[in-house]
Amino acid sequence: MVIFETNMGKIHIDIDTKNAPVSAQNFIDYINDGFYNDTIFHRVIKNFMIQGGGFTKDMNQKNTKSEIENEAKNGLKNTKYSLSMARTSAPHSASSQFFINTSDNSFLDFPGQDGWGYCVFGEVVEGFVIVDKINQVATSNNSGHGDVPNDSVIVNKAYDVS
């Protein structure tokens, strides 16, 4: 269990170490390193997903560890409130960034539109109201990025309580 303490409230996430061991361990390692502390949800697309894990409050991208293997073939689905690895168009490019689905996004499931899909490795178990509030924030362009919340959604602290 991981808790994200945000400026909007707490989100509790159950990490699936059985079905997505590489993604889960990668995420937990970032948590234990304090990497997500003082980062933001930098991309919010209403009724799609909220993305975080890569940018500081001033929209500077953080340096990450190596990219990991895409485990999207694990049978887990990109349903509302599931936690998935974010990546570029390259299938095995996930590192620190993640997203929480704010609706059912089956088109992201393996094999997806690119033969791979996006790996689900956890789910929100408490703090649904907080996820829903973040989903509703107003966004605009900022520092060359789209869908950035106008008022920062800050992860003050992220920690493992398992």
Would you give an account of this structure?
It holds the Pfam family Pro_isomerase. One of its GO terms (molecular function) is peptidyl-prolyl cis-trans isomerase activity. Residues 1-160 form the PPIase cyclophilin-type domain. It catalyses: [protein]-peptidylproline (omega=180) = [protein]-peptidylproline (omega=0). This is Peptidyl-prolyl cis-trans isomerase. It is a single chain. The protein has 2 helices and 10 strands. The strands form 2 sheets. Strands 1-2-7-5-6-4-3-10 form an 8-stranded antiparallel beta barrel. A two-stranded antiparallel ribbon has the order 8-9. A hairpin with a 2-residue loop joins strand 8 and strand 9 (145-149). The mean pLDDT is 97. The chain has one domain: Beta Barrel (Cyclophilin). The protein has helices at 21-32, 128-135, and strands at residues 2-6, 9-15, 39-45, 49-56, 82-85, 98-101, 120-126, 139-142, 145-149, 154-160. The chain is mainly beta. It starts with a strand and ends with a strand.
